[in-house]
Structures are given as C-alpha cells and as structure tokens.
Amino acid sequence: MVTITINVNEAVAKKFRETAAATFGKTKGYLGRAVSEALFTWVNLKREKKESAHMLEILEEGLDLGGVTFSREQLHARR
Predict the structure, then answer these.
(1) Which of 10, 19, 51, 64 has its CA 20 to 30 A from that of 76?
(2) 52: which DSSP letter?
(3) Each residue of 19-73: pLDDT tens digit?
(4) In a domain? residue 67
(5) Residue 2 maps to a domain
C-alpha cells in the first residue's frame, strides 16, 4: 500500500466521494478502493489507446504478406 497526496477540484472531489460511497458504501477504505479502481481503469485505457495507435500505424504502412503488399485502403475497398 502507498500513500499519494493530490489536489483536486472541490466539485470533482465531492462527486467522486458521492459516487464512491454509492458504489462501495461508506465503509472503511471505500475512498481508497475507488481511487485504486479509477487509477487502474485510467492506466489501462491509456495503454489500450497507445496499442491501438500503434496498430493503426502498422496498418497505414501496409502489410507485407510474402512479397504482396496490401494497404489499408485496398483491404477496405468496396467493390
């Protein structure tokens, strides 16, 4: 377990506390659980966006399939 000290907008903090209490109940540790879940979700979202951007870069460059190269436009061309 680690302690992180942060400053957030008052309105955001109020909404976060309300949502955390509604989700986990106002029991001991509910804010920590909510913050951990929020941070985990944010980190995964950023990772997924980065991976998606990398995949799109590969598709834009085209795929080499044994000497035959297809671009993204060719793969998605409508006939």
Answers:
(1) 51
(2) H
(3) 999 999 999 999 999 999 999 999 999 988 888 888 888 877 776 677 777 777 8
(4) yes
(5) no
